[in-house]
Amino acid sequence: QVQLVESGGGLVQAGGSLRLSCAASGIIFRIDTMGWYRQAPGKQRELVADISSGGSTNYVDSVKGRFTVSRDNAKSTVYLDMNSLEPEDTAVYYCNADLVTTYNRRSNYWGKGTLVTVSS
């Protein structure tokens, strides 16, 4: 069974840093784009950052210069390094990935989410 498992969330003071990790497991033939979304209370889920299989990255404007997305293909893992955190970054962060699995099927997967709380 293919799944994405996030880790690294928690409580941090404004100005602090956290690193989120997301590992894909199961029978996976190829991992295409991997990324992070977040959903704050009362708001829609939004893309935070993603990274293609070739390493091209994309960020929402509000995190540019503060967050860095990276991946380790050998470990099927995507990371999100978050610096200079602000209370507005408080949200549940979800890992997302486009995976090619059995029968050459390409599907989009979500993790269950990890809570990041930034106190002022």
Helix fraction, binned, reads under 10%
Number of helices: 0
- Tell me the structural class: mainly beta
Strand percent estimate: over 45%
Round the mean pLDDT to the nearest integer and report it: 96
Strands, count: 11
In angstroms, what separates the terminal alpha carbons?
40 Å
Which stretches are poorly predicted, pLDDT < 50 over at least 5 residues?
Answer: none
Short précis:
By secondary structure, the protein is mostly beta strands.
Helix-strand layout with pairing:
Elements (H helix, E strand, L loop, with lengths): L2 E5 L2 E4 L4 E8 L4 E10 L6 E6 L5 E3 L7 E6 L4 E6 L8 E11 L3 E6 L3 E6 L1
Parallel strand pairs: 2-11
Antiparallel strand pairs: 1-3, 3-8, 4-5, 4-9, 5-6, 7-8, 9-10, 9-11
Structural commentary:
The chain contains no helices and eleven strands. The protein is mainly β. Strands 2, 4, 5, 6, 9, 10 and 11 form a seven-stranded mixed sheet that branches. A four-stranded antiparallel sheet has the order 1-3-8-7, with no helix packed on it. β9 and β10 form a beta hairpin. The chain is elongated, with a radius of gyration of 14 Å. The mean pLDDT is 96.
